[in-house]
Design a protein that fits this description.
eight-stranded mixed sheet; 8 strands; 60% helix; elongated
């Protein structure tokens, strides 16, 4: 049931506490979906960028093919912020006089150093992928940064939409004042490049928000491990995501110890793990759950990823 529910979506986010195996699970899920014939794009927004390590090949800001039907891209927040600022400056140079451009550039540099600029740039790239690439891919899988950062990013479409709506309203008022008569103002509004750019951004934000909030199209898979801190952070994330309105479609319990090993250390760890697994079953009974068994070696390369994919597939 878990597998079918997630494969029916257009966008799936994998998130959770740092170090619980989000990248492994998202990569294995993306690989599994591609093996079943879907055109899949795996997107890493985690600054650690472990996706390239797992697939044992370079991945960067441009989409690269990893396997038949599977491509990947790694988004660097600082690089995206620099690109975003450069694009804004270029657009301003096209629209305004040199004097206005000089003043605007100073304001942009101040904005570039402010908190949240990285998230704005990441959101802009997310719009590019989710809104513009839907015809290219059947499924987009996001390997996200640790929980708090991801939740902030998912809340940004609402904040950005309000901000852009205010800019559009202000720009319309300026153009109407400058052109006086109704007919003249209508023509000026239609031809105004700033209003055109703002309106396009407004429409794309609306489309992104509609996609993320559509429970039939987008879902969030939480990844945790059977340890106290991870369980508590997962509980908070599930609650916050529920409050945001995003569908939480699955809980992946990663790195579960295999049965049948010997030794007192193992028995004690297994007993503690069982206590936490029972707690997970009790506290998250409303979520689809799947357990991924700990492999004897680190997950690197297609062979080990296939083993994780097989466990995800068995859950269906």
């Amino acid at each position: 049931m878990l597998l079918n529910a997630l494969l029916d979506r257009q966008v799936v986010f994998f998130g959770g506490k740092g170090g619980v195996g989000k990248t492994t699970c998202s990569a294995a899920f993306a690989l599994m979906a591609s093996r079943r014939g879907q055109r899949v794009l795996l997107v890493s927004t985690d600054p650690a960028h472990s996706t390239a390590d797992i697939f044992e090949r370079p991945i960067g800001p441009r989409e690269v093919a990893l396997a038949p039907q599977l491509s990947a891209v790694e988004i660097d927040g600082e690089q995206e912020a620099a690109r975003y600022i450069a694009d804004v400056k270029r657009d301003i140079q096209k629209m305004f006089s040199a004097h206005v451009v000089q003043q605007a550039h100073r304001q942009i540099e101040v904005a570039a150093a402010s908190p949240g600029m990285t998230e704005v740039a990441l959101l802009d790239r997310m719009i590019d992928l989710v809104v513009d690439r839907q015809q290219t891919y059947d499924l987009i899988v996001f390997d996200t940064a640790p929980t708090g950062h991801t939740l902030q990013l998912l809340r940004m479409p609402d904040a950005m939409t309000s901000w852009v709506n205010a800019l559009v309203k202000h720009r319309r008022a300026v153009v109407e004042i400058d052109h006086g008569t109704e007919g003249s103002a209508d023509a000026a509004l239609a031809a105004d490049p700033i209003l055109t750019a703002l309106t396009r951004r407004q429409e794309r934000l609306v489309r992104l928000r509609a996609t993320i909030m559509d429970r039939a199209r987008t879902s969030f898979a939480l990844v945790t491990i059977a340890e106290r801190l991870a369980i508590e952070e997962t509980a908070r994330a599930a609650e916050l995501l529920g409050d945001t309105g995003v569908d939480v479609g699955a809980l992946v319990v990663n790195r579960v110890l295999p049965d049948g090993l010997e030794g007192e250390f193992y028995r004690q760890r297994k007993a503690q793990e069982q206590t936490y697994l029972e707690e997970i079953e009790r506290r998250f009974k409303g979520l689809r759950r799947v357990r991924i068994e700990q492999l004897p070696r680190d997950v690197y390369g297609m062979t080990s990823l296939e083993l994780i994919s097989a466990q995800l597939g068995a859950a269906s």
